[in-house]
Structures are given as C-alpha cells and as structure tokens.
Specification:
- The chain is α/β, with parallel strands linked by helices.
- It folds into 3 domains: 7-156, Rhodanese-like domain (Oxidized Rhodanese, domain 1, 3-Layer(aba) Sandwich), CATH 3.40.250; 162-270, Oxidized Rhodanese, domain 1; 278-386, Orthogonal Bundle (Arc Repressor Mutant, subunit A).
- 37% of the residues lie in helices and 18% in strands.
- The chain is built from 15 helices and 19 strands.
- The chain has helices at residues 7-19, 46-51, 64-69, 85-92, 112-122, 134-141, 162-166, 172-179, 209-217, 235-245, 282-290, 296-307, 319-326, 330-342, 372-386; strands spanning 42-43, 57-60, 70-72, 76-77, 101-104, 128-130, 146-148, 169-170, 184-188, 197-199, 204-206, 225-229, 251-254, 268-270, 278-280, 314-318, 346-351, 354-359, 364-366.
- The protein has a 5-stranded parallel β-sheet, covered by helices on one side. It has a 5-stranded parallel β-sheet with strand order 8-13-12-9-11. A 3-stranded antiparallel β-sheet has the order 16-18-17, sandwiched between helices.
- Helix 1 packs across helix 5 (112-122) and helix 12 packs across helix 14 (330-342).
- The longest helix is centred in the C-terminal third of the chain and has 15 residues, at 372-386.
- The radius of gyration is 22 Å and the shape is globular.
- It starts with 6 loop residues before the first helix and ends with a helix.
- The relative contact order is 0.10.
- The model is unreliable at 1-8 and 15-28 (pLDDT under 50).
C-alpha cells in the first residue's frame, strides 16, 4: 500500500489531544501514574485482555525495533509516529465494531499507548482501550502468548531490567576516556537527519540502527569494546537486547544520549560532511524524464530533492523552503510527493513542517554506492515502496 500524507491534520489532532489532557490530581495512582492524565481512555487489565484475547484487536504503536525485540503475539504493528496513522488505523479495524481494540507500548509510564487510544476516540473509534500494563507485564504474566527476541514462549529471565541497563550507561567524561582506548569502536546510531552535531570524539562511525543490527548479529565486533550513543538515550535500550543475545560483553552507552550534552559547547561539535558528491544514475534519470505519468511540477520536485540530499539518500528540509525555491504551492508539492512515492522514485513523510524524503538509492546516493549500507538501503527502499 502506498504512503499517503495527511500529516498536518493528524499532527494537529494529536497536539490538541495532548493539550486537552487535564492536570494530574494530587493523588495519582502509583502503579499507573498516567491514568489521571487520560480520563477518557478506559484501561484494560492483563487478566481481562487475556480473557478477551481471541476477539481483541491488539495494536502495538511502538517502533519496528521495539516490536522485534518483544511483542504480544497477535499484535499488529502500527507506529504512532506514522504520518498516516489515522488512515491505517481504519484498515486495522473499522471505527464502528463490536471487537475491542487495545493499544499498548512499553509499560506503566509509557504515554504513547494512551495518546494512541485518545486519538482513536477523537477520530470516532468505538470500543477503544489502553493496555497500560505494557509489553513486559504481558510477557511476564502470559509468556506463552508473548515473543521475546524471537522466542515463544517469552523467557522472563531474558528481560533486561533497569539495573542491568544502568550498569552499561556512562557519563560523557567516561565515554570520552573509553573512546581513546585501543580496540574501541564508537558508533552513532542516530538517523542521518538527526546529526547536526556530535560529541567531540574522533573516529565516530555513523551507522543507523537498522543496518547496525545486521552488523551486530553477524558478530563482527565481539572482540571489540563498543561505545554507542543515540539522540536521547532511549534507542540504546533496545539495542542492548541484541548485544546480549549475540554475546557482546564489553559495551557502554552515553548516558542521556546527545541531549545530555547538547548545551555544552565544550562537548559537542558540528557535523561536517566530508563527502559532498552525489552520484546519480543517468539511465534512471532518463527513465524519470520519459515517464509520462509525471508532469513538469513532479520533475521539478524530484530534481530539487536530488540537489538537496543531506546524507546517503535522505533529504530533510523545511517544506516552506521547498515551495519557495521551486515556486510550487504546498498543496501541489504534497501531490507531487505522493506521485513520486506511488511511482517508486521516493518515499516521504512530513513532520512538523519538515519534509523527510528518501530517494531511490539507485537513482541518487551521497557516498559510496555498492557498499553494505547502500545495499541495505536499496532493500529497505523497495520494501517501503511495496507497502
């Protein structure tokens, strides 16, 4: 199914839903501290969800990585961050249905499941619940209907608790000192569009999480000391499951990610791209030019994207800047991006006024084509286009 962008209405609704949440009462429920914030949302307990398991539509609104690590067996993956979340939710279950629909995420203090449930209610969905026990309550209570690191029943002894997670977090000064030790690899797992700045550390490898997992599971670094950092210190927790599963022992995470040091100029530096060359395929450009399904506005937009690739095949730019520079209105620009996605030239999303696009890596690529990362991105792009 092709991507459709209804971002602005979706984000507007989500923002309104969040702002309308009441202030927390003085006597908040300790076990489920977020329930007072979302009085319109009905929780469903582990026992009740188990009793109605066969008839309930269970929706996992986390990332694909989190879903791959641990999930309820019959859950449908539908990340809340999708720009067309509302459209896809109707494909999961009609608005008017006797079947219960329950949203879940990572636990008692994870707000995303509440936000998804409240958004569904605001869109007119009936029989909506939040399973705020979350994935770890589920796999602990009902392991036979849960999966953890590919194993069913889920094994409770493989759950990484907070203490084990904290044991591998280190301060920036410790991280910097460790990076200078021999046989050490420092890896930035952020997505390319998040890399405006980085820590003042030499020889950092920029490997987004998806291709990184392929390298981790191949066990090529088991004899190395590995240092990882992300944007805010959350993605690394899910990476830890793969590190443990594939026998990595000597690793550490930057506590709090880049956000923890973002305001200290002695610890961060701007990211300077050393490779400014975008390699384009002349044969694919000719194919694009001859494609009668595209009009001049579409070709102008794709040309603009190719001229503004930030990293690999990513374009991250303010949508108003695109309209201004191309002379194409926002509505026509959105229509062109839909067509370019439909016809397999680029995928896109629009988040908070920013256009985030990935062009076909075979059409244009900033860096070394035919590298393992390039091959991974080709497969990722083809899979995204076929959805």
């Amino acid at each position: 199914m092709h991507t459709h962008s209804h971002t602005f209405p979706f984000l507007a609704i989500l923002m309104i839903v969040t702002l309308l949440c009441p202030l927390i009462p003085a006597h908040a429920q300790e076990d489920f501290p977020l329930r007072p914030y979302y009085p319109e949302v009905t929780p469903i307990t582990t026992d009740k969800l188990m009793a109605e398991y066969d008839i309930t539509v269970i929706v996992d609104i986390r990332s694909r990585l989190e879903y791959e690590v641990a999930r309820i067996n019959k859950a449908i993956l539908l990340p809340l961050t999708l720009e067309n979340f509302a459209d896809k939710l109707e494909e999961v279950r009609p608005k008017h249905s006797a079947k219960p629909m329950a949203f879940y995420c990572n636990g008692h203090s994870c707000a995303k499941s509440y936000q998804a449930a409240q958004l569904a209610l605001s869109l007119g969905f009936e029989n909506v619940f939040v399973y705020d026990g979350g994935i770890f309550d589920w796999i602990t209570a009902i392991p036979k209907r849960g999966t953890l690191m590919g194993e069913t029943p889920a094994r409770a002894d493989r759950i990484i608790d907070s203490q084990k997670f904290l044991q591998h977090q280190i301060s920036y000064d410790e991280f910097l000192a460790a990076s200078k030790e021999p046989n050490t690899v420092v890896i930035d797992i952020r997505d390319p569009f998040q890399r405006d700045s980085g820590p003042r550390i030499d020889d950092i490898r920029n490997i987004p999480l998806d291709p990184l997992l392929d390298l981790v599971t191949s066990r090529i670094w088991t004899e190395k000391k590995l240092l990882f950092f992300d944007a805010v210190g959350k993605q690394i927790r899910w990476l830890q499951y793969f590190l443990n599963a594939y026998d990595y022992f000597d690793y550490a995470f930057l506590e709090g990610g880049m956000r923890a040091i973002a305001n200290d100029p002695t610890k961060i530096k701007p990211v300077i791209e050393t490779d400014q060359t975008v390699i384009t395929s002349q044969s694919m450009l000719l194919k694009l030019t001859a494609d009668q399904r595209l009009d001049n506005a579409d070709r102008k937009v794709i040309s603009y994207l190719l001229a503004n690739i930030k990293f690999n095949n990513y374009v991250v730019i303010d949508i108003n800047d695109v309209s201004r520079d191309t002379g194409i209105s926002s509505s026509l620009l959105t229509n062109s991006m839909k067509k370019l996605t439909t016809f397999g030239y680029a995928t896109h999303s629009i988040m908070q006024g920013m256009l985030i696009a990935q062009v076909d890596p075979r059409l244009a690529w900033k860096g070394d084509p035919d590298s393992p990362l390039w091959n991974h991105k080709v497969k990722e792009f083809d899979a995204a286009i076929q959805q």
